[in-house]
Amino acid sequence: MEVECNYHCYHEKDPDSGLTQDLKAAASCFLIVCEKPRKKSLAACHNVACLAHDGWVNEDGQPDLGKARDYYIRACDAGYASSCFNLSAMFLQGAPGFPKDMDLECKYSMKACGLGHFWACANASHMYKLGDGIEKDEAKAEVLKIQAKQLHKERQKSVQSLTFV
């Protein structure tokens, strides 16, 4: 696949050619890998959730929030920070048939924060500072804010140290 991409990008000067995108097929492949006993991929479970959330797992193209939630929970429970963060966003926003739940939003933000997701730390800090759906706690808000800043700083360092040849 890399050879295909490099050929079209550099030789043909056409980065959009090559393989055609088929998100339904991708969802099917991710689902197979996610469901594998013993060697499941948390990234595959997360990707199934993302595609379900965006409507790529159903024939009608409608989002399947229940399936998205289930696969996000599976990946989050196994320690996949982005799934925890996406769950927190789902519970923050709510949707038809999927009620807003600030307690669960806080729970998943805190879990994602503990797993190193700086946006989750920032969101949790904001919730505690305002008392948004949870008891106001400015000391906890400050600790989470500092943690978010530290995680962001670490992320920036890792991005800056990346060099391309």
From TrEMBL:
<keyword id="KW-0677">Repeat</keyword>
<comment type="similarity">
    <text>Belongs to the hcp beta-lactamase family.</text>
</comment>
<dbReference type="GO" id="GO:0005758">
    <property type="term" value="C:mitochondrial intermembrane space"/>
</dbReference>
<comment type="function">
    <text>Required for assembly of mitochondrial respiratory chain complexes.</text>
</comment>
<dbReference type="Pfam" id="PF08238">
    <property type="entry name" value="Sel1"/>
</dbReference>
<protein>
    <recommendedName>
        <fullName>Cytochrome c oxidase assembly factor 7</fullName>
    </recommendedName>
</protein>
<dbReference type="InterPro" id="IPR040239">
    <property type="entry name" value="HcpB-like"/>
</dbReference>
<dbReference type="InterPro" id="IPR011990">
    <property type="entry name" value="TPR-like_helical_dom_sf"/>
</dbReference>
<dbReference type="InterPro" id="IPR006597">
    <property type="entry name" value="Sel1-like"/>
</dbReference>
